[in-house]
Amino acid sequence: MSRYRASFIHLMISTALAGSVFGIIYWVWYPEPIFSIVGVLPIVLVLAGVNLGIGPLLTLVVYKYGKPGLKFDLCVIALMQIVALIYGSYRLYDEKPDYLVFAIDRLEFVSKKQIDQSTMQFDEAGTEHFAGLAMVFASPPEDPEAHQRYIDSVISDGKPDLESRPEFWAPWLAGADVIRQRIKPVEKIVPKTSDEQEKLRRAIAAYETDHPNLGVLPIGGIEKNLGMLLDRDSLEIIDIVEADPWTPAET
């Protein structure tokens, strides 16, 4: 067998294995639109480069029919690929978002590793869901003394902020009135560019018939300025909007 054929076979095997893993990542762990929002694509591309590029390339370099120690070399290459794939997959699984949390004026993606689940005050399985995420409402304590203790815990004790504190969470619809107050009507979104303006126009045109009262909440903790499109009446999350929701509202 030539080295080119060996490298091609290695590429086909790697493609099948990596394709199965990437399918789980895309369809199960990070279903759209989560995949596009949280910036997981660069990590996936690195995994793809290692498994579909470096592995078969190394086989092309080391393979020579009848070469002493060839099986050992190929086993080392395969082991390197498997370890890289397992490690990368574990990191992606460990960091995948599990909750969509409304906190103060925005939505935040939160993973289970970021929180102490033992402090959860309700059964999140019974709340609303979006793209596999449990939707929850976070609010600081109303009692002045309890509120001050919360502030001190963040500033002085270094504890996580509101979105990562399940003891301050409630089911999504429990915060309906507060959430509605923070949703910016789509007509008050001020696009920064003509591209943003066109994308916002398309989003409104696609959904306004079924959802005449559309609004947008900012998504925090990500690099892009994106908003989540919601029905202001039902609080149903509909889609993402590729327009900056942080710009001042029109008056």
Could you provide a short overview of the structure?
This protein has 251 residues and is of the alpha+beta class.
Report on the structure:
This protein folds into 3 domains: 3-95, no CATH class; 99-179, no CATH class; 183-241, no CATH class. By secondary structure, it is an alpha+beta fold. Helix 1 (3-29) packs antiparallel against helix 3 (41-62), helix 1 (3-29) runs parallel beside helix 4 (70-95) and helix 3 (41-62) runs antiparallel to helix 4. The protein has helices at residues 3-29, 34-37, 41-62, 70-95, 144-155, 176-182, 194-207; strands at 99-103, 106-110, 129-130, 133-138, 169-171, 184-185, 214-218, 227-231, 237-241. The termini are far apart. The longest helix is centred in the first third of the chain and has 27 residues, at 3-29. Strand 8 and strand 9 (237-241) form a beta hairpin.
State the end-to-end distance. 73 Å
Quickly count the helices.
7
Order of helices and strands: HHHHEEEEHEHEHEEE
Return the structural class.
alpha+beta
What is the CA-atom radius of gyration, in angstroms? 24 Å
Q: Strand share of the residues?
A: 15-25%
Report on the biggest sheet: 5 strands, mixed
Helix content: 40-55%
How many β-strands, per DSSP?
9
Number of domains: 3
What overall geometry do the principal axes of the alpha carbons give? elongated
**Average pLDDT taken over every residue:** 89
Question: What are the segments in which pLDDT stays under 50 over at least 5 consecutive residues?
Answer: none
Write the layout of secondary structure elements.
Elements: H1 3-29, H2 34-37, H3 41-62, H4 70-95, E1 99-103, E2 106-110, E3 129-130, E4 133-138, H5 144-155, E5 169-171, H6 176-182, E6 184-185, H7 194-207, E7 214-218, E8 227-231, E9 237-241
Parallel strand pairs: 1-4
Antiparallel strand pairs: 1-2, 3-4, 4-5, 6-7, 7-8, 8-9
